[in-house]
Design a protein that fits this description.
This protein has 19 helices and 2 strands. The protein is mainly α and 478 residues long. The longest helix is centred in the first third of the chain and has 29 residues.
Amino acid sequence: MHLSVILRVTGVLLMLFSVAMAAPLLVALHYGEDVLRPFLTAFVITLGTGAALRLLPRRGADLRSREGFLITVLFYAGLGLFGALPIYLAPGVADSFTDAAFESISGLTTTGATVITGLDELPRAILFYRQLLQWLGGMGIVVLAVAVLPMLGVGGMQLYRAESPGPVKDNKLTPRITQTARALWLIYCGLTLACGAAYWAAGMSLFDAICHAFSTVAIGGFSTHDASLGHFQSGAVESVAIVFMILAGMNFSLHFLAWRRPKQYLRDIELRTYLATIAVVAALVIWVLARFDATPSPFREGLFHAVSITTTTGFTTTNFSVWPSFAPVLLLFAAFVGGCAGSTAGGIKVVRAVLIIRQGVREIRRLIHPSGVFPVKLGKEVVPDRVLDGVWGFFAAYMIVFLAMVCVLLGISSLDFQSAFSAVGACLNNLGPGLGDVALNYAGLSAPAKWLLSLAMLLGRLEIFTLLVLLTPAYWRS
């Protein structure tokens, strides 16, 4: 284990991240807001810590895949804690460092769960910083999912070994990982610019358009207003959000491949399943809203929330948790599936759900024909048993972690079962809004509950195994 090299890499990441704290200074200067000191202090602390780690003597050889686990965890956990500094130091924003850390981790993991109220009155520099955290976290997620986790073999992500045509991908998008990251950055930035321009054309101010573009493409869900996108009362704004939430929930490597060969979209079974899932959830929610006459606009509100919650974005235009019948529960369960692998969305991921279903169907067929050979396929490709084992292992670990966290949260808080179940589900799936007491925000939770849910956000974003492997003694043996 080359700890000195790992810490040096973490130092470089902190130094780069400190720039994110400098960017809101320009917003504060532009609007004449008196929040320069919190950002300057956080910038100096983060940059100084990163520089100190970077100057450690280098001992050891090049990084191996096992070091990738620790670097990945330090990347999100460390940046989450340092990212909390401006929020904590700014007066009147967070009541404690726990709240600031919860908000920062929620941003960087693109969860969108918040403990801050009164957003409409906050300095714009703080609002911009929250949105920027999500945007940076979203890009980190794409690179992590497409370029890093496949090499680590985490939870069946070998299936997307970045990224050649077809559902089972064995070659790189480009020959080198740096070129892969650069290509993904271009796609990500291009979508962000297009989304921001569309929001502006739909009637948002330039500031709101930029901030919500950051959050939309990152599948984050943070907003600059307490009422989220409901603040704008605009069908045009909601239409823009629907389009870009769907695009951001798709595999970014697929966007890369389809840039020159658009037919790749049609051939990808995960994408077809993803779109079909959204369509079915939307149809059921619209039917419930129309049947119970729950809203004057069942189609508009049902479609918007079906897309927002299924993609784990978490934007809202109304409090969907009070909708009648099974609609709120259906939306929450849809978030468990989430978006496509290699996207900024959370959840188990559509491709895993497809493989779990197909594996189940195969077992039923084996009961009928014990001697039969029934390979599991995605398109024309046979899925290796090693990948299927990884998917099932991930699903088992996911369910165990989920149920354990629900039990712990019930024990350390006063939440009822519905609220605790949805809180863990919303944070583990990087969704944000839950049901019951956490439908609007998480401000009323105790400090231990907030730290537990922060851990859930990290577990969900790091694909469970990336963090759990660090808890095994075998990992730390040289």
